[in-house]
Specification:
The complex is a heterodimer of chains A (84) and B (378). Chain A has one domain: ACP-like (Non-ribosomal Peptide Synthetase Peptidyl Carrier Protein, Chain A), CATH 1.10.1200. Chain A is 57% helix and 0% strand. Chain A is globular, with a radius of gyration of 12 Å. Chain A contains four helices and no strands. With 84 residues, chain A is mostly helical. Chain B has 378 residues and is α+β, with helices and mostly antiparallel strands. Chain B folds into three domains: 79 residues, RNA polymerase II/Efflux pump adaptor protein, barrel-sandwich hybrid domain (OB fold (Dihydrolipoamide Acetyltransferase, E2P), Beta Barrel); 69 residues, Dihydrolipoamide Transferase (Irregular); 222 residues, Chloramphenicol acetyltransferase-like domain (Chloramphenicol Acetyltransferase), CATH 3.30.559. The longest helix of chain B has 22 residues. Chain B is elongated and about 100 Å long. The chains are: A mainly alpha (84), B alpha+beta (378).
């Protein structure tokens, strides 16, 4: 899966978790928690959705790797690529 | 119109999901009402058959107004003047119907053959027809269209109304309830270690949040100090047999709700987490049920994720206590004469001094601490 496609899927997931947010103004290198009104329940819903839709299970100890849009896209892309 | 919180004075009926003649059982969603806390699904509290709808979509009525009549099993229709039933017309004999009754039956769409006459010689009277009409389901195509529900209020308006509702509730709380506050620091080393181990082996969708442990620990501690699990009703306290912990949940458009996690103490952690996730998601989507807003017997609020270390909560009347959890912070902690680094959380209790006192409150917080030291038993 190409990175732009992963980015689009991640943004779609975010739009369901924080529907009030204007994601066109999302800063890709700033943590979601610093710019969206999200809590631990939202983050859990976020990683569950990534697992279900992109088939990448993010360990709890690696949540920091998906804390920003760019980091999330890079990490998911690397995880998918590692499977060949 | 159910009371969905101390701050609710009235509600507007949005839609009926059941019609006269429909069977309902306890817990079924029967209608939707619009309140300052958003659209709420109204559940029925008894099983039976819907006899009559009393409030139409679009109508705003005060709390306590009957919305519908439900006949329980074995219960007759709405009482009518006691009239001795005349014997029915003998089989094969022509049914006797008064001209007025025949005319009214035609107007109301009542099948005369199904009406038992109470008039002279078993004749069907106008009153017989009207009683039969009241018992039968509402026609699918009513003769007059119901009033159109009002346009949904704008989001800004809803936010303003919710803020006003919260203002009324907390003002009442601070005016009427003599709060006292206690706090304690809890070592979460065992709880967070156990949580980490659990989540490392669980599928993503089955992971637990620390908040689930807090809720279960509070629920179990209430078994030890049940006087905090109560409602203040006038000059007396009514303890609740069940433990329905209210979960303070912020809403994205502003404001908050604290819906009940029913029977919190009886849920396994897995069930509690599933129900908590569902509850929070529905609260934020405006899909709560009436019992979830009316049933909490205590509230738990956590502001740790906002960086807050100590929470001094305002009791939500008629409840008598609220428990707060702050941020989990890694701090020096003295243990067996050694200073070690531990994840610590400050737990607070705001309680109604008319109902309880510091001694019992202290025992309660100690019980919460004790429960969190044995996470595998939560």
């Amino acid at each position: 899966m190409r990175k732009d496609e992963i980015r689009s899927r991640v943004l779609t997931i975010l739009s369901t978790i924080a529907p009030e947010a204007d994601l066109s103004r999302l800063k890709p290198d700033v943590p979601f928690r610093d710019q969206l009104d999200v809590d631990s329940m939202d983050m859990l819903n976020f990683v569950i959705a990534i697992d279900q839709e992109l088939h990448v299970a993010i360990p709890e100890t690696e949540y920091a790797k998906v804390a920003t849009l760019n980091a999330c896209v890079d990490h998911v892309s690397a995880m998918l690529a590692s499977r060949g | 119109m159910p009371q969905l919180g101390a701050d609710m004075a009235a509600g507007r009926l949005v839609a009926w999901y059941k019609q006269p003649g429909d069977a309902v059982k306890k817990g079924d969603i029967i209608a939707e009402v619009d309140t300052d806390k958003g659209a709420i699904d109204v559940e029925v509290f008894t099983s039976g058959v819907v006899e009559k709808i009393l409030v139409q979509p679009g109508e705003k009525v005060p709390v306590g107004t009957p919305l519908a009549i439900i006949l329980e099993a074995g219960e007759g229709p709405t009482p009518s003047p006691p009239t001795p039933a005349a014997p029915p017309a003998p089989a094969g004999e022509r049914q006797r119907v008064s001209p007025v009754a025949r005319k009214v039956a035609a107007e109301l769409g009542v099948e005369l053959a199904s009406v038992r006459g109470t008039g002279p010689g078993g004749a069907v009277t106008r009153a017989d027809v009207e009683r039969a009409a009241a018992r039968q389901p509402t026609p699918a195509t009513p003769t007059a269209p119901p009033p159109a529900p009002p346009a949904p209020p704008g989001e800004a308006d809803r936010r303003a109304r919710m803020r006003q509702a919260i203002a009324a509730a907390v003002t009442r709380s601070k005016r009427d309830i003599p709060h006292f506050y206690l706090s304690t620091t809890i070592d979460l080393h065992r709880a967070t270690t156990w949580l980490g181990e659990q989540n490392a082996t669980r599928p993503v969708a089955d992971r637990l949040l620390a908040g689930a442990l807090f809720l279960k620990a509070v629920a179990l501690a209430l078994r030890d100090v049940p006087e905090l699990n109560a409602r203040w009703e006038g000059p007396k306290v009514v303890r609740s047999d069940a433990i329905h912990v209210g979960v303070a949940t912020f809403l994205r458009e502003g404001g908050l709700v604290a819906p009940a996690l029913h029977d919190t103490d009886r849920l396994s952690l897995d069930d509690l987490m599933r129900k908590l996730r569902d509850l929070v998601n529905r609260a934020r989507q405006g899909e709560l049920r009436s019992s979830e807003l009316s049933d909490p017997t205590i509230t738990v609020t956590s502001l740790g994720e906002q960086g807050v270390e100590t929470v001094y909560g305002v009791i939500y009347p008629p409840q008598v206590a609220i428990v707060g959890f702050g941020k989990i912070v890694e701090r020096p902690w003295s243990l067996g004469g050694q200073v070690v680094s531990r994840p610590l959380v400050t737990a607070t209790l705001s309680a109604d001094h008319r109902v309880t006192d510091g001694h019992r409150g202290g025992l309660f917080l100690a019980a919460v601490d004790a429960r969190l030291q044995e996470p595998s038993r939560l």
